[in-house]
Amino acid sequence: MALFLAYDPSSNPLNTNEWAFPVCEVLHILGFAVAIGTITMVDLRLLGIGLKKESAADLVKGTRAWTLAGLALVLITGPLIFSSDPNMYLRNASFRFKITALVIAIIFNYTIHRWVALKQAPGGVAILTGLISLALWISVVFGGIFIAFV
Question: Is the pTM of this model over 0.85?
Answer without folding.
Answer: yes
